Amino acid sequence: MAFNLKNRSQLTLRDCRHQVSYVFISDAGNNMGDSLLIGGAKMDMDVGLCAPKACWPVQEIQDQAQAVASETGARIMITEDIDAAVKGVDFVYTDVWVSMGEAKEKWAERIKLLTPYQVNAELMAKIGNPRVRFMHCLPAFHNTETSVGADILAEFGLDAMEVTEEVFESSASIVFDQAENRLHTIKAVLVATLGA
């Protein structure tokens, strides 16, 4: 699954720019963070991961990405500093703070840890790039219209988690273009594996 997510994300990134810089702001130690870090390094991109240290990739993944970057010329930044991470980037990417199948007890822990890293209008304004685009691999908890969103509001008082409705529905958002590219990636994997 990480292979698929990485490739569809890289396809969406390449659709929009020639020289690419992006930051992934979320639990950067999950499969998405790992895939975006190594995939971006392989494609000679400027890759940023921004999260609390407790949510950084394991050292082995960081070392692997740095080794690849030294061969390709990619630049990698892993930081807790939101302002430094987002300055001038072309893309801001986030993901859910709690992955499918994780225990409900993780919610409170992750919300406390990651709320300062929410992608919202204030964060987008810090970027300083009027052409910045927002990405998310979906599903997103950007409002209270789902049962999960309603539960989060009731239990934690948040009307959004990793991204606000304002950013998710903005003209900067390319989440549905990204989802479309996922379809093409899946078809390519099926063709390759089924020998069609």
From TrEMBL:
Gene3D superfamilies: Aspartate/ornithine carbamoyltransferase. Keywords: Cytoplasm, Transferase. It comes from the Bacteria. Residues 19-192 form the Aspartate/ornithine carbamoyltransferase Asp/Orn-binding domain. One of its GO terms (biological process) is citrulline biosynthetic process. Its main location: cytoplasm. It is found in: Cytoplasm. It is an enzyme of class 2 (transferase). It catalyses: carbamoyl phosphate + L-ornithine = L-citrulline + phosphate + H(+). GO terms for molecular function: amino acid binding; ornithine carbamoyltransferase activity. One of its GO terms (cellular component) is cytoplasm. Its EC number is 2.1.3.3. Belongs to the aspartate/ornithine carbamoyltransferase superfamily. OTCase family. Reversibly catalyzes the transfer of the carbamoyl group from carbamoyl phosphate (CP) to the N(epsilon) atom of ornithine (ORN) to produce L-citrulline. This is ornithine carbamoyltransferase.
